[in-house]
Design a protein that fits this description.
The chain is an alpha+beta fold. 20% of the residues lie in helices and 30% in strands. The chain has a 6-stranded antiparallel sheet. A 6-stranded antiparallel sheet has the order 2-3-10-5-8-12. Bound molecules: 1-hydroxynaphthalene-2-carboxylic acid.
């Protein structure tokens, strides 16, 4: 299993393989080394997309198609190692979405879970299961599986956010269901801020019984996240691999906000150079504040706010900053942990 040599193909074996191929049979010994590898060998590549490039292309798309006609006006971040598959990693999808002033992205729902991470603009909204949430830069908003959701922009500025969905995972499982709402915008049935007040104040309604696998909180505002990190830095030792890193949690059970996608925010204080680290969850990062450099194996990627970069499974990663920086990230760690597959290596044995 840990050597790549395949059994030699004699004329007799080749003839046999051809013969059984017609019956849709294949010898395991020809493919075993690619199926069960001693460690992850991903086609996913380390890569960085400059925000300025993606933003300019998306604004151009804004002149070509409306949000309504497109259903969602999004440019997909396609991993260069996985072109044509609408994937940023093998298990996750990411895109940059634009909603122009006055537009509506019509209501629909699907089995795929989605996150929004706001890149630019303020005052646009998304309505999820009857609650309207206003979005501001750095806010992390979730759309749980089969939750009705539509977006609108009543502000006078273009609104752009990073979408993250578990599309490849659901595709792999052949479990995709989707439907359009009869109306472009669903009816609002709960006041704005209701879910945050009810479930996001370190309390829960006394007789509340969680019924769904995702967090009942739809919007985790950046202001609160940032404040937590700022207070923590006064007392906490800075982790050599992560700086100060928090995970977004589901108040029902302390797990991740969604069953398939884990999300994080970390503060890298000015001057920090993190120790190298690797884990089995390929991770998508975007900077909110500050500039820095991330080394992935031997490649160096320089980033600034709103750039998006991806670290493949089991590649060594370290970050370096010359000013305070905050990084949002997401991965399939939520799935891997449930399956007992997630591994990390803090570099201490090398
Ligand atoms: C979706 O529903 C949204 O609601 C964005 O904003 C991107 C990509 C594929 C499938 C559904 C959204 C999507 C999507």
């Amino acid at each position: 299993m840990d050597n790549d040599a395949k059994p030699a193909v004699s004329a007799e074996r080749a003839a046999f393989y051809d013969k059984i191929d017609k019956k849709n049979l294949t010898p395991l010994w020809s493919v075993l080394g690619d199926l069960v590898t001693p460690e992850p060998r991903s086609k996913c590549q380390a890569y960085l997309w400059k925000y300025a490039d993606a933003r300019a292309a998306l604004l151009e798309a804004g002149d070509l198609i409306t949000a309504k006609e497109a259903e969602r006006r999004v440019l997909i971040y396609e991993n260069p190692g996985l072109r044509g598959q609408s994937r940023i990693t093998t298990s996750l999808y990411a895109g940059l979405q634009l909603v122009l002033p006055g537009e509506v992205a019509p209501a629909h729902r699907h089995t795929q879970s989605a996150l929004r991470f706001v890149m630019e603009g303020s005052g646009a909204h998304t309505t999820v299961d009857g609650e309207k949430t206003t979005m501001n830069v750095g806010d992390f908003v979730i759309t749980p599986q089969m939750a009705w959701h539509d977006h609108g922009n009543g502000s006078d500025q273009p609104m752009m956010w990073l979408d993250g969905l578990d599309i490849p995972l659901i595709q792999f499982l052949d479990a995709s269901f989707a439907e359009s709402h009869p109306d472009d915008e669903q009816e609002v049935s709960r006041p704005s801020g209701d879910s945050l007040a009810r479930y996001g104040a370190n309390m829960l309604p006394v007789d509340y019984a969680p019924g769904k696998p995702s967090s009942p909180i739809f919007n985790y505002p950046y202001e609160r996240t940032r404040e937590s990190l700022e207070v923590m830095r006064r007392a906490d030792a800075i982790d050599p691999c992560h700086g100060l890193k928090m995970k977004y949690v589901n108040p029902n059970d302390g797990g991740y906000a969604m069953p398939t996608i884990a999300t994080f925010m970390q503060l890298l204080p000015n001057g920090l150079k993190t120790a190298r680290y690797r884990s089995t969850d390929a991770t998508i990062f975007t900077a909110v504040e500050g500039r820095g450099r991330t080394t992935i194996d031997d490649q160096v990627f320089e980033w600034e706010p709103q750039d998006v970069f991806v670290v493949p499974s089991w590649k060594w990663v370290s970050h370096e900053v010359d000013e305070d920086a905050t990084l949002f990230s997401f991965s399939d760690r939520a799935v891997q942990e449930k399956l007992g597959l997630w591994r990390e290596d803090r570099g201490t044995n090398q």
